[in-house]
Amino acid sequence: VVERQLVGGAAQHPGDAERMTRLGVAYFEAGQFERARDVLRSSLVIDPRQYPTHVYLGLSYEQLAAFDSARAELVAARGLARDSRQRDEIDGHLNLLTRRELQVAAQRASPGSKANGSLMRCVPIGVWGWALDDDALVACAREDSSLTHPNPACGDSVAAYVLAVAHLVRVPGD
């Protein structure tokens, strides 16, 4: 029902960039990233200075694994940000985008690799996260490992090692 209303409103007011953006956001939230991309691009043709349109277009591109286009839209949004909160929001999106790019590149490069590279760099996570509960620490360890080593066995190994390091920090001499 909402989609029909948004589509109908956009059709009745084809020059209304805000309506087009609302429709694009609705497509994005429904997981229809290609449709979101198309509608949001049309909205920017009407008014290229829309902060939320650039943000959602960037997020749509990210979901479509078009990382260069995603970064360009998020950088454009950052240039239109009205305050530090919006700039911080975009910086967070850009950081997550970089993480996703690394994960996709690692998955493509070596999906079955069980190399020890992520294990070699994990000690600081155990030292840094010694005060976290074990579930949170395991999640951090697996996330870090997945940046370069997507195989779940690597994440499990890193998580076990990080838990051991954190334990040694918590209980010196153990």
Count of DSSP strands: 0
The description of the largest β-sheet is:
none
Principal-axes geometry comes out as elongated
Q: Radius of gyration, Cα only, in angstroms?
A: 21 Å
Number of helices: 10
Structural class determined from secondary elements? mainly alpha
- The helix/strand series, from N terminus to C terminus, equals HHHHHHHHHH
Cα separation of the termini: 62 Å
Stretches where pLDDT is under 50 for at least 5 consecutive residues are: none
Give the secondary structure arrangement, pairings included:
Layout: H1 2-12, H2 17-29, H3 33-46, H4 51-63, H5 67-80, H6 84-109, H7 117-120, H8 123-128, H9 134-146, H10 152-170
Architecture overview:
This protein is mainly α and 174 residues long. The chain has ten helices and no strands. It has helices at residues 2-12, 17-29, 33-46, 51-63, 67-80, 84-109, 117-120, 123-128, 134-146, 152-170. Helix 1 (2-12) packs antiparallel against helix 2, helix 4 runs antiparallel to helix 5 (67-80) and helix 5 (67-80) runs antiparallel to helix 6. It is elongated and about 70 Å long.
Task: Provide key terms for this protein.
single chain, mainly alpha
What's this, in brief?
The chain is mostly helical and 174 residues long.
